Hints:
With about 170 residues, the chain is of the alpha+beta class. It is built from 5 helices and 7 strands, in the order ββαααββαβββα.
Amino acid sequence: xxxxxxxxxxxxxxxxxxxxxxxxxxxxxxxxxxxxxxxxxxxxxxxxxxxxxxxxxxxxxxxxxxxxxxxxxxxxxxxxxxxxxxxxxxxxxxxxxxxxxxxxxxxxxxxxxxxxxxxxxxxxxxxxxxxxxxxxxxxxxxxxxxxxxxxxxxxxxxxxxxxxxxxx
Length: 168
């Protein structure tokens, strides 16, 4: 919380506690970003407009130096005068774990015709692609909420898109 009169950051005690918990959970190395998000959602953390946080929000929190008392301005790191939620030691431990868990990009990665172009009609999450038994399939990532949408074969998508384009 920002006090406009004193120009000081005043932490919201509930959010402060939950942000600290995010770092503590992830620093064990036993939880994925998605698992941390699920735990913290059940504990009640929401965005300022009361929406459930995305996995990318959790990742953004974990890499933000603000939480150990620093801030970035013009790509330079400065020490802030606000109360830190965590220690620099905990922040550094989390960065190490994130680095260890990050997967290097695969070379010769398979090309999927519709990769990055589709969103789930059921829940608006991203669609991911994979190959099973020689066929390309697309499915909902189910990152925001549980979703009942089924896998769709690439051939079926090609037919649907061709049908739509013929009508144009």
